[in-house]
Design brief:
The structure is a single chain. Helices cover 53% and strands 0% of the residues. It has 188 residues and is an all-alpha fold. The radius of gyration is 18 Å and the shape is elongated.
Protein backbone atom coordinates (compact mmCIF):
# COMPACT_ATOMS: atom_id res chain seq x y z
CA UNK A 1 0.00 0.00 0.00
CA UNK A 2 1.09 3.55 -0.68
CA UNK A 3 0.38 6.50 1.62
CA UNK A 4 -1.99 8.08 -0.94
CA UNK A 5 -3.78 4.80 -1.55
CA UNK A 6 -4.20 4.21 2.20
CA UNK A 7 -5.49 7.71 2.88
CA UNK A 8 -7.89 7.61 -0.09
CA UNK A 9 -9.28 4.18 0.78
CA UNK A 10 -9.75 5.19 4.43
CA UNK A 11 -11.46 8.50 3.70
CA UNK A 12 -8.84 10.93 5.01
CA UNK A 13 -9.38 13.90 2.69
CA UNK A 14 -6.97 16.25 4.48
CA UNK A 15 -4.15 13.71 4.15
CA UNK A 16 -4.99 13.09 0.49
CA UNK A 17 -4.92 16.84 -0.17
CA UNK A 18 -1.55 17.19 1.58
CA UNK A 19 0.00 14.30 -0.34
CA UNK A 20 -1.29 15.59 -3.67
CA UNK A 21 0.05 19.08 -2.88
CA UNK A 22 3.47 17.48 -2.31
CA UNK A 23 3.38 15.90 -5.76
CA UNK A 24 2.60 12.29 -4.90
CA UNK A 25 1.57 10.31 -7.99
CA UNK A 26 -2.23 10.38 -8.27
CA UNK A 27 -2.13 6.91 -9.83
CA UNK A 28 -0.05 5.30 -7.04
CA UNK A 29 -1.34 1.72 -6.88
CA UNK A 30 -1.44 -0.84 -4.12
CA UNK A 31 -0.02 -4.36 -4.50
CA UNK A 32 -3.24 -5.50 -6.17
CA UNK A 33 -2.81 -2.74 -8.78
CA UNK A 34 -5.79 -0.69 -7.62
CA UNK A 35 -5.66 3.09 -7.73
CA UNK A 36 -6.64 5.54 -5.00
CA UNK A 37 -9.59 6.65 -7.16
CA UNK A 38 -10.93 3.09 -7.37
CA UNK A 39 -10.91 2.74 -3.61
CA UNK A 40 -12.32 6.19 -2.91
CA UNK A 41 -15.16 5.60 -5.39
CA UNK A 42 -15.84 2.12 -4.03
CA UNK A 43 -15.98 3.36 -0.43
CA UNK A 44 -18.03 6.49 -1.12
CA UNK A 45 -15.44 9.15 -0.26
CA UNK A 46 -16.86 12.02 -2.32
CA UNK A 47 -14.38 14.73 -1.33
CA UNK A 48 -11.44 12.45 -2.10
CA UNK A 49 -12.86 11.46 -5.47
CA UNK A 50 -13.17 15.17 -6.27
CA UNK A 51 -9.55 15.84 -5.24
CA UNK A 52 -8.22 12.93 -7.26
CA UNK A 53 -10.22 13.91 -10.34
CA UNK A 54 -8.93 17.49 -10.07
CA UNK A 55 -5.40 16.05 -10.25
CA UNK A 56 -6.24 14.04 -13.36
CA UNK A 57 -6.85 10.57 -11.93
CA UNK A 58 -7.75 8.02 -14.60
CA UNK A 59 -11.54 7.51 -14.54
CA UNK A 60 -11.14 4.26 -16.50
CA UNK A 61 -8.62 2.60 -14.17
CA UNK A 62 -9.70 -0.99 -13.51
CA UNK A 63 -9.21 -3.18 -10.50
CA UNK A 64 -7.09 -6.26 -11.01
CA UNK A 65 -9.65 -8.74 -9.75
CA UNK A 66 -12.75 -8.15 -11.93
CA UNK A 67 -11.79 -5.20 -14.17
CA UNK A 68 -14.24 -2.90 -12.41
CA UNK A 69 -13.87 0.84 -13.01
CA UNK A 70 -14.52 3.58 -10.45
CA UNK A 71 -17.94 4.15 -12.10
CA UNK A 72 -18.85 0.47 -11.79
CA UNK A 73 -17.95 0.50 -8.10
CA UNK A 74 -19.80 3.74 -7.38
CA UNK A 75 -22.92 2.60 -9.26
CA UNK A 76 -22.86 -0.82 -7.61
CA UNK A 77 -22.53 0.66 -4.11
CA UNK A 78 -25.04 3.50 -4.55
CA UNK A 79 -22.71 6.50 -4.37
CA UNK A 80 -24.81 8.99 -6.37
CA UNK A 81 -22.59 12.05 -6.07
CA UNK A 82 -19.52 10.07 -7.09
CA UNK A 83 -21.35 8.64 -10.09
CA UNK A 84 -22.18 12.22 -11.10
CA UNK A 85 -18.56 13.35 -10.70
CA UNK A 86 -17.25 10.45 -12.77
CA UNK A 87 -19.84 11.00 -15.50
CA UNK A 88 -18.84 14.68 -15.68
CA UNK A 89 -15.28 13.49 -16.38
CA UNK A 90 -16.46 11.24 -19.20
CA UNK A 91 -16.43 7.84 -17.50
CA UNK A 92 -17.54 5.03 -19.81
CA UNK A 93 -21.17 4.12 -19.01
CA UNK A 94 -20.78 0.81 -20.87
CA UNK A 95 -17.68 -0.46 -19.04
CA UNK A 96 -18.20 -4.09 -18.01
CA UNK A 97 -16.67 -6.14 -15.25
CA UNK A 98 -14.97 -9.38 -16.22
CA UNK A 99 -16.84 -11.59 -13.75
CA UNK A 100 -20.46 -11.07 -14.88
CA UNK A 101 -20.18 -8.65 -17.84
CA UNK A 102 -22.22 -6.20 -15.80
CA UNK A 103 -22.35 -2.51 -16.73
CA UNK A 104 -22.87 0.29 -14.20
CA UNK A 105 -26.57 0.36 -15.20
CA UNK A 106 -26.98 -3.37 -14.56
CA UNK A 107 -25.40 -3.03 -11.10
CA UNK A 108 -27.47 0.03 -10.19
CA UNK A 109 -30.72 -1.64 -11.31
CA UNK A 110 -29.87 -4.86 -9.49
CA UNK A 111 -29.02 -3.07 -6.25
CA UNK A 112 -31.95 -0.62 -6.27
CA UNK A 113 -30.19 2.68 -6.92
CA UNK A 114 -32.88 4.60 -8.82
CA UNK A 115 -31.13 7.97 -8.97
CA UNK A 116 -28.04 6.31 -10.41
CA UNK A 117 -30.15 4.42 -12.95
CA UNK A 118 -31.62 7.77 -14.03
CA UNK A 119 -28.16 9.40 -14.25
CA UNK A 120 -26.76 6.57 -16.35
CA UNK A 121 -29.74 6.50 -18.71
CA UNK A 122 -29.36 10.27 -19.08
CA UNK A 123 -25.79 9.69 -20.27
CA UNK A 124 -26.89 7.14 -22.86
CA UNK A 125 -26.38 3.86 -21.01
CA UNK A 126 -27.84 0.94 -22.97
CA UNK A 127 -31.21 0.09 -21.44
CA UNK A 128 -31.00 -3.44 -22.86
CA UNK A 129 -27.46 -4.15 -21.64
CA UNK A 130 -27.02 -7.83 -20.82
CA UNK A 131 -24.82 -9.63 -18.34
CA UNK A 132 -23.13 -12.90 -19.22
CA UNK A 133 -26.34 -14.63 -18.03
CA UNK A 134 -28.40 -12.29 -20.25
CA UNK A 135 -29.96 -10.38 -17.36
CA UNK A 136 -31.10 -6.90 -18.37
CA UNK A 137 -31.61 -3.95 -16.03
CA UNK A 138 -35.37 -4.66 -16.10
CA UNK A 139 -34.83 -8.33 -15.24
CA UNK A 140 -32.64 -7.41 -12.27
CA UNK A 141 -35.01 -4.73 -10.99
CA UNK A 142 -38.05 -7.02 -11.32
CA UNK A 143 -36.31 -9.95 -9.65
CA UNK A 144 -35.10 -7.85 -6.72
CA UNK A 145 -38.35 -5.97 -6.13
CA UNK A 146 -37.22 -2.48 -7.12
CA UNK A 147 -40.59 -1.11 -8.20
CA UNK A 148 -39.47 2.48 -8.81
CA UNK A 149 -36.68 1.29 -11.10
CA UNK A 150 -39.02 -1.05 -12.96
CA UNK A 151 -41.37 1.89 -13.50
CA UNK A 152 -38.52 4.10 -14.73
CA UNK A 153 -37.22 1.44 -17.12
CA UNK A 154 -40.70 0.81 -18.50
CA UNK A 155 -41.13 4.56 -19.09
CA UNK A 156 -37.93 4.35 -21.16
CA UNK A 157 -39.37 1.41 -23.17
CA UNK A 158 -37.34 -1.43 -21.68
CA UNK A 159 -38.19 -4.78 -23.26
CA UNK A 160 -40.66 -6.59 -20.97
CA UNK A 161 -40.17 -9.80 -22.95
CA UNK A 162 -36.37 -9.93 -22.51
CA UNK A 163 -35.21 -13.37 -21.42
CA UNK A 164 -32.22 -14.43 -19.42
CA UNK A 165 -30.17 -17.53 -20.28
CA UNK A 166 -32.71 -19.78 -18.60
CA UNK A 167 -35.55 -18.23 -20.64
CA UNK A 168 -37.08 -16.35 -17.72
CA UNK A 169 -38.67 -12.92 -18.21
CA UNK A 170 -39.01 -9.98 -15.82
CA UNK A 171 -42.63 -11.03 -15.22
CA UNK A 172 -41.60 -14.55 -14.26
CA UNK A 173 -38.98 -13.28 -11.81
CA UNK A 174 -41.37 -10.77 -10.23
CA UNK A 175 -44.04 -13.46 -9.86
CA UNK A 176 -41.55 -15.99 -8.46
CA UNK A 177 -40.51 -13.62 -5.68
CA UNK A 178 -44.00 -12.28 -4.96
CA UNK A 179 -43.49 -8.71 -6.12
CA UNK A 180 -47.20 -8.03 -6.81
CA UNK A 181 -46.81 -4.33 -7.61
CA UNK A 182 -44.15 -5.13 -10.20
CA UNK A 183 -46.25 -7.93 -11.71
CA UNK A 184 -49.04 -5.37 -12.07
CA UNK A 185 -46.70 -2.89 -13.80
CA UNK A 186 -45.38 -5.51 -16.19
CA UNK A 187 -48.88 -6.61 -17.16
CA UNK A 188 -50.06 -3.06 -17.99
Amino acid sequence: QTPLWSAAASGHAAVVRLLLEKGIDVEAKDRSVQTPLLWAAKNGHEAIVGLLLEKGADVEAKDSEWDQTPLLWAAKNGHETIVGLLLEKGADVEAKDSEWDQTPLLWAAKNGHKTIVRLLLGKGAAIEAKSNLHQTPLLWAAENGHEAIVRLLLEKDADVEAKDMSGQTPLLWAAKYGHAAIVRLLLE
